[in-house]
Design a protein that fits this description.
Beta-lactamase; binds glutamine; five-stranded antiparallel beta sheet; acetylation; 12 helices; alpha+beta; glutaminase activity; hydrolase; Beta-lactam/transpept-like; 2 domains; globular
Length: 303
């Protein structure tokens, strides 16, 4: 596996030159576009990494998986899916226009920004910091790493430039589907700024692969929720590239605009990838190809 990961990493690294860093969050534009890293943690306890694996990055949209789990632990499934749908959007992750098509506004799914804002607003807690602490606690337990925290420069950098997310939040507020706009936005941008490395991501993926049991065998989330979020990852996890990704790779996965990808092969392994150069849909350009090659070589497609 070590030799395989290194070979696939070097094969795909040149692709990083064809991608672009996310620039609308100024701090993300400071990442090194040539970075590429991958980690695999198997259910048999094998851990393999290649590339710049120790490098930390912010989780961005991958946090939508974590907040959805927590919201579903806090509320009945019906209450959550009353406010946010279960259908792929087929639009960019920050798109606003389909929100207008339903009254009251109901985002199509929890993996697009509008849906994730609704989900964040449902996380229970007395203050933004208490609610954030609960999200952090969950991700730390899934990754079995108590050190995971927030990157405050990325948080500040995004909050001051969150024009699109702020407009999505105000639109949702008009129909009262979220609580206080600025609080919701602060919590959302903070959980997007959770910083970790690709080994942590692989361990989160392992936890989902083991139906909620982390690397130490601790049942961190209910079994059925692990199934539910992996299904969302298949249908909506790679934004409007989810269909092609399912065909070419066939692994439940969730990407973030920092270039991270969380992937989970049920009952087999968790995979974490980091490659900040993105394709035009906002997914790691080399990361996707690396996963495609790995899935083919190891026959990992779930289909
Ligand atoms: N924080 C980012 C945003 O809201 C997350 C988006 C992403 O990773 N695709 O724009």
């Amino acid at each position: 596996m070590q030799e395989l990961l290194e070979r696939l990493l070097e094969k795909n690294r040149p692709l990083t030159q064809k991608g672009k860093l996310a620039k609308y969050i100024p701090e993300l534009a400071r990442q090194d576009p040539s970075t590429l890293a991958v980690s695999v943690v198997t259910v048999d306890g094998e851990t393999v990494t290649a590339g710049e694996c120790p490098q930390k990055f912010t989780i961005q949209s991958i946090s939508k998986v974590i907040t959805l789990i927590l919201a579903l632990m806090d509320h009945d499934e019906e209450d959550v899916f009353d406010k946010v749908g279960m259908e792929p959007a087929g639009d960019p992750y920050n798109s606003i226009y389909k929100l207008e098509m339903m009254t009251p506004a109901k985002p199509l799914n929890p993996m697009i920004n509008a849906g994730a804002l609704v989900v964040s607003s449902m996380i229970v807690g007395g203050s933004v910091s208490e609610r954030l602490e609960r999200i952090l606690d969950l991700v730390r337990r899934m990754a079995d790493n108590p050190e995971i925290g927030i990157d405050s420069s990325t948080f500040r950098s995004e909050l001051t430039t969150a024009y699109r997310n702020r407009s999505l939040a105000y639109f949702l507020k008009e129909y009262d589907v979220i609580g206080d706009v600025e609080e919701t936005l602060e919590l959302y941008v903070k959980h997007c700024a959770i910083a970790l490395n690709c080994l942590d991501l692989a361990r989160v993926g392992l936890c989902l692969a083991q139906y909620g049991k982390n690397i130490r065998g601790e049942q961190v989330i209910p079994r059925d929720l692990a199934r539910l979020v992996k299904t969302f990852m298949v249908t909506c996890g790679m934004y409007n590239a989810s269909g092609e990704f399912a065909i070419r790779v066939g692994i439940p996965a969730k990407s973030g605009v920092s270039g991270g990808i969380l992937a989970s092969v049920p009952e087999t392994m968790g995979i974490g990838v980091y490659g900040p150069a993105l394709d035009d849909k906002g997914n790691s350009i080399a990361g996707i190809r690396l996963l495609e090659d790995l899935a083919k070589e190891k026959n990992l497609s779930i289909f």
